[in-house]
């Protein structure tokens, strides 16, 4: 009998020991075969955030600053407690010569460790607090169509407003004094050429007393100065906050986080940027100041539909009164092609139209999960001229739902300038004032394109002046 009990105890001990070994994505080992260092994300066994969220919601806070600060304080405190032993271990390793650095995802109680070696991966794998080690994944930016490039200097004083700005009737709102003043728009994209003549006046980092801290973040590498080697982000920022006739909200201010270091976007960087927008930090990722959060975040990126991994960030944004605007994707006009996170309930999703108010041939189509109407609205996305990353006076023409998304972000900025209010109210203004597009006679999930709302352009093409 004693022998059987001893075997039972030994078996339970072995089971407990086996269960303490974390799950390690195969991609991590593959990466370490190809390189000495890799990036991993740690998930924790005691990471359940329900109690932290319950504490936050029980407070029934009313001011935006209190909501931003308290949400961050409660969730970060929870993350700090759960991650304490691992953080101490990794910090000690850094002090002993390891080169990795940490990036806490306080919204989800996860921890990104960049430039980590095999020995440290094995230490983490065997630590009882670690649930899993996740390999870095990348989402390709939707391919955009390149058009002509030109220079602002060629226009002298006769430059016209970009056609999309006119199409959404932004100049009529400007004439009423509604230009986006006092509203900050965040960009998660490939970065920004902050010195461009159309972007420099509206970059918050150029305001008196400001610098790049709290206005710029590059999770991979911690670059202290904004840059953009791709151009996608610079172009999109120009459309929502540019001057010189290219931006819908030319007196708004913009900040940026580089979630896409190349022509693809690291999910680690995208999640880190989502945390940054909910509570901005300095360029090194520290000394958070949540009151610096934007009112809108423009997201011209996305992956396959039906994915929920970004939803915790969307929840934190919505709690804080931040509108998350997303492109629908460029997979064409077949049904069920809209991508994530834009297809999720808390994301405001944007399809693309042409200058003749027809659906762009590349614009992805809904519905979203549970047959939800997606996209929510449509905006100009074909042959849109905006700022170039190649020099400070250049413009380039691009086509994609990536170009449509910032038109809506700028329109939401005009609504917040004119009316203030909640994200829900602002989105309702955008949808309720939207206009009919020229229908192509298509149908998705029993909703003809000629009726509204539908799964091709949602509630219709936006009317920024009517909404504001």
What percent strand?
15-25%
What form results from the Cα inertia axes?
globular
Low-confidence stretches: 1-18
Spatial arrangement of strands, main beta sheet: 9-10-8-12-13-14-15
How many β strands by DSSP?
Answer: 19
Mean pLDDT figure: 94
Summing up helix and strand content along with how strands pair, one would put the structural category as alpha/beta
Q: Please give the share of residues in helix.
A: 25-40%
Distance between the termini: 80 Å
Q: Biggest β-sheet: count, sense, barrel?
A: 7 strands, parallel
Radius of gyration: 23 Å
Number of DSSP helical runs: 13
What report would you give on this structure?
The protein contains 13 helices and 19 strands. The radius of gyration is 23 Å and the shape is globular. The chain has 468 residues and is of the alpha/beta class. The protein starts with a helix and ends with a helix. Strand 18 (443-444) and strand 19 form a beta hairpin. Mean pLDDT is 94; it is low at 1-18. It has a 7-stranded parallel sheet, with helices on both faces.
Pick out its properties:
468 residues, alpha/beta, 19 strands, globular
Topology (elements, then pairings):
Layout (H helix, E strand, L loop, with lengths): L1 H18 L3 E2 L1 H9 L3 E7 L5 H9 L5 H32 L5 E5 L4 E7 L1 H8 L4 E6 L2 E3 L4 E7 L11 H5 L2 H6 L8 E6 L26 E2 L14 H10 L11 E6 L5 E3 H12 L17 E4 L11 H9 L3 E5 L20 E6 L23 E4 L3 E4 L6 E6 L1 H19 L3 H10 L10 E2 L2 E2 L15 H4 L1
Parallel strand pairs: 1-5, 8-10, 8-12, 9-10, 12-13, 13-14, 14-15
Antiparallel strand pairs: 2-4, 2-5, 3-4, 6-11, 7-17, 16-17, 18-19
Helix pairs in contact: 3-4, 8-11, 9-10, 11-12
């Amino acid at each position: 009998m004693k022998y059987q009990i001893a075997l039972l105890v030994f078996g339970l001990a072995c089971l407990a020991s086996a269960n303490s070994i974390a799950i390690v994505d195969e991609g991590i080992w593959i990466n370490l075969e190809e390189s000495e260092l890799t990036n991993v994300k740690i998930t924790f066994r005691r990471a359940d955030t329900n109690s932290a969220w319950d504490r936050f919601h029980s407070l029934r806070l009313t001011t935006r600053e209190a909501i931003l600060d308290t949400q961050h304080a409660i969730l970060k405190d929870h993350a700090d407690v759960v991650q304490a032993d691992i953080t101490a271990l990794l910090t000690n390793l850094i002090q002993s010569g390891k080169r990795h650095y940490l990036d806490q995802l306080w919204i989800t109680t996860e921890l990104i460790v960049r430039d980590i070696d095999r020995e440290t991966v094995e230490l983490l794998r065997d630590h009882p607090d670690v649930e899993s080690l996740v390999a870095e994944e990348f989402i390709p930016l939707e391919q955009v169509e390149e058009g002509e490039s030109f220079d602002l200097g060629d226009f002298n004083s006769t430059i016209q407003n970009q056609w999309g700005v006119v199409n959404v009737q932004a100049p009529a709102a400007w004439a009423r004094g509604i230009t986006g003043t006092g509203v900050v728009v965040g960009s998660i994209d490939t970065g920004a050429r902050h010195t461009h003549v159309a972007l420099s006046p509206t970059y918050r980092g150029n305001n008196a007393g400001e610098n790049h801290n709290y206005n710029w973040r590059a999770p991979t590498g911690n670059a202290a100065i904004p840059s953009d080697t791709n151009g996608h982000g610079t172009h999109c920022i120009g459309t929502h906050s540019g001057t010189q006739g290219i931006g819908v909200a030319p007196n708004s201010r913009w900040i940026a986080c580089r979630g896409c270091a190349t022509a693809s976007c690291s999910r680690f960087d995208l999640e880190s940027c989502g945390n940054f927008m909910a509570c901005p930090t300095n360029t090194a990722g520290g000394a958070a100041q949540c009151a610096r959060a934007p009112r809108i975040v423009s997201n011209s990126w996305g992956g396959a539909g039906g994915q929920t991994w970004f939803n915790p960030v969307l929840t934190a944004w919505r709690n804080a009164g931040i509108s998350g605007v997303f492109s629908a994707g460029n997979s064409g006009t077949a049904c069920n092609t809209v991508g994530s996170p834009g297809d999720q309930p808390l994301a405001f999703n944007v399809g693309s139209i042409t200058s003749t108010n027809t659906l762009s041939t590349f614009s992805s189509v809904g519905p979203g999960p549970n047959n939800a109407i997606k996209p929510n609205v449509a905006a100009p996305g074909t042959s849109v001229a905006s700022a170039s990353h190649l020099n400070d006076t250049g413009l380039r023409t691009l086509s994609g739902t990536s170009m449509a998304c910032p038109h809506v972000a700028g329109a939401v900025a005009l609504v917040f300038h004119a009316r203030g209010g909640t994200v829900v109210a602002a989105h309702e203004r955008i949808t309720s004032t939207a206009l009919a597009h020229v229908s192509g006679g298509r149908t998705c999930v029993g909703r003809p394109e000629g009726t509204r709302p539908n799964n091709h352009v949602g509630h219709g093409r936006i009317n920024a002046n009517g909404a504001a």
